């Protein structure tokens, strides 16, 4: 058996990832409306009955908008660390007491047969995390909304077969674009978002450590476009003689649409 992964949506209007393994279904973030999440998953014939958990990365609306609704509708537990719970509790509405699950960063836990490691990342949120998932054979990682990739983050992600990695913006587009100064500063800061170039540089290390599929995620609508993210990362990899299509599979996740179902 292998992991199944799909991006339900990716970008500032809503983020949601689906992970399946055997009969276990997990969502990472639920930033779309409940209805849109159902619709997108239906395109892959996936329903949310018996979903084992919604794992929250951080409290920004594009990651939690539908979490409460889905938890109430399908009786799904929501997992987050304590600091994140403090700031999402009144945003997601009332959910059942026993669906409130609290984890500690950097302390792995299991949902059925999947070992989950939530690890700290750098972003302007209360206590943001990224996740790795391990089924005893393969590992996959989801890391978006991170200002930079420090050594600790790298170590957590290394050896993943599939990595969902933020490739948020093109630095020049951002600098020349219409964002107000404070917002530009925020995005570019170490607690902001990862640029195409930085994503590309980290992809080199990932491929050297055995990553086979990289899915670029959380693209900015104003300061990026899919072809640019793809070509920038591809170009950075090429400089190190790593070739898309030969040494790795590289794709860009769509903003509002469900992706293919990847098997790892
Ligand atoms: Zn976000
Ligand atoms: Zn965020």
Tell me what the structure shows:
This protein is an alpha/beta fold and 264 residues long. It has two domains: 1-104, Metallo-beta-lactamase, Chain A, CATH 3.60.15; 146-254, Metallo-beta-lactamase, Chain A (4-Layer Sandwich). Helices cover 30% and strands 25% of the residues. The chain has nine helices and 14 strands. It has helices at 34-42, 61-64, 67-74, 82-92, 151-157, 171-176, 181-188, 196-208, 226-239, and strands at 4-9, 16-21, 24-28, 53-55, 78-81, 100-103, 109-111, 114-120, 129-134, 139-143, 162-166, 213-217, 249-252, 262-263. The strands form two sheets. Strands 6-5-4-3-2-1-14 form a seven-stranded mixed β-sheet. It starts with a strand and ends with a strand. The mean pLDDT is 97. Bound molecules: zinc ion (2 copies).
Biggest β-sheet: count, sense, barrel? Answer: 7 strands, mixed
Level-2 CATH architecture of the largest domain: 4-Layer Sandwich
Bound molecules: zinc ion
Number of helices: 9
Helix % is 25-40%
List low-confidence stretches. Answer: none
Q: Taking strands numbered 1, 2, ... along the chain, how are they ordered across the largest sheet?
A: 6-5-4-3-2-1-14
Total strands: the figure is 14
Distance between the termini: 9 Å
Morphology: globular
Fraction in beta strands: 15-25%
The SSE order reads EEEHEHHEHEEEEEHEHHHEHEE
Mean pLDDT: 97
**What is the domain tally?**
2
The CATH homologous superfamily of the largest domain is called Ribonuclease Z/Hydroxyacylglutathione hydrolase-like
Q: What fold name stands as the CATH topology of the largest domain?
A: Metallo-beta-lactamase, Chain A
Structural class: alpha/beta
Radius of gyration: 17 Å
CATH class of the largest domain equals Alpha Beta
């Amino acid at each position: 058996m292998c992991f199944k992964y799909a991006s339900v949506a990716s970008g500032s209007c809503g983020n949601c990832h689906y992970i399946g393994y055997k009969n276990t279904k997990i969502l990472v973030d639920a930033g779309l409306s409940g209805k849109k999440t159902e619709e997108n998953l239906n395109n892959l014939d996936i329903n949310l009955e018996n979903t084992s958990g919604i794992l929250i990365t951080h409290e920004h609306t594009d990651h939690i908008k539908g979490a409460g609704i889905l938890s109430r509708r399908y009786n799904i537990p929501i997992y987050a660390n304590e600091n994140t719970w403090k700031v999402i509790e009144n945003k997601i509405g009332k959910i059942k007491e026993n669906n409130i699950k609290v984890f500690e960063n950097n302390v792995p836990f299991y949902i059925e047969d999947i070992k989950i490691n939530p690890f700290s990342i750098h972003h302007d949120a209360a206590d943001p995390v990224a996740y790795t998932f391990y089924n005893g054979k393969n590992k996959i990682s989801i890391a978006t909304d991170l200002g930079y990739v420090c050594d600790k983050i790298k170590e957590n992600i290394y050896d993943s077969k599939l990595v969902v990695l933020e490739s948020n913006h093109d630095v020049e587009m951002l600098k020349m674009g219409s964002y107000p100064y404070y917002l530009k500063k925020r995005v570019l800061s170490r607690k902001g978002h990862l640029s195409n170039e930085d994503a590309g540089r980290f992809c080199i290390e990932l491929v050297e450590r055995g990553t086979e599929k990289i899915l670029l995620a959380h693209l900015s609508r104003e300061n990026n476009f899919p072809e640019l993210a793809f070509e920038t990362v591809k170009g950075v990899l090429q400089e190190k003689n790593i070739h898309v299509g030969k040494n790795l599979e590289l794709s860009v996740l769509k903003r509002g649409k469900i992706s293919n179902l990847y098997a790892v």
